[in-house]
Amino acid sequence: MKVLGGSASPLLADRLAKELGEVSGKTVTKRFPDGECYVRVMDDLEREDVILVQSTATDADIVELLLLQDAIQEYRVRSLITVVPYFGYARRDKLFNKGEAISSRSVIQAIQRNTDAVLLVDIHNLMILTYYDIPVENISGMLQIADFLKEAGVEMVLSPDEGSVSRARIVGQNMGTSVDYLEKTRIDGETVRITTKMLDVYRKRVAIVDDIISTGGTILEAAKQLKDQGAKEVIAACTHGLFAQGALEKLEKVCDTIISSDTIENETSVVSVAPELAKAIQNYQ
Ligand code: R5P
Which CATH architecture has domain 142-271? Predict the structure, then answer.
């Protein structure tokens, strides 16, 4: 088996290779002067079972993923599993207004064309799995987040809205702590309102758990409420730390700790989804 990482996921590819008892292969990604992407796979993959790991937080990451799949298939590999740890466009999962694209579906159609199976992590809405015509599995990063929060002495877990409470429940159940949720209303892409709700957080170490932190607007509003209600410490935890538009700096002013997984590699990536991905891959064999 060969594990290859694209330029968005080199660390996770290495960790996954180690979990599987393999050494990760080498890929090269460059940009032509006009900005077009160039990729090359440096290992001989003839008749290999290949795992390709590449998050798609940007459009450039998507193109790189498609080119890497093409380069891998040129070797006549035995099988290719594409791991998309963070799948961009996951939140554009349906038609919100007439005339728009169903972006998730469109990107999925491109990604599934050249692979045998796809693995995703904490996908925003499980419904988008129905857009796949090939085997696809969604892995949870919440168990690793639960381990971290338990170690940090967190006494209560909160979801920023009722719709995402199932993820917070996985975390709370694995830590043996109580779970509650806030009531969020999204005003626009950057603004959310969290309705005031009295919570049992006074002098407690509390974690807010979400799948994605993008602009940080959701966590910021939630954290302010918890601090106003006397929480001793607020930890923001997510699987996918996008931290768009200076979100990290904004959050650091209110949250005591911010953590994410290595689906998007950044300074807050303190937990790894590699062990769970490795288990899923071993089940395929
Ligand atoms: C949305 O429903 C997601 O679960 C996240 O709550 C959302 O993507 C976070 O976005 P932001 O950080 O921009 O508030």
Answer: 3-Layer(aba) Sandwich (3.40)
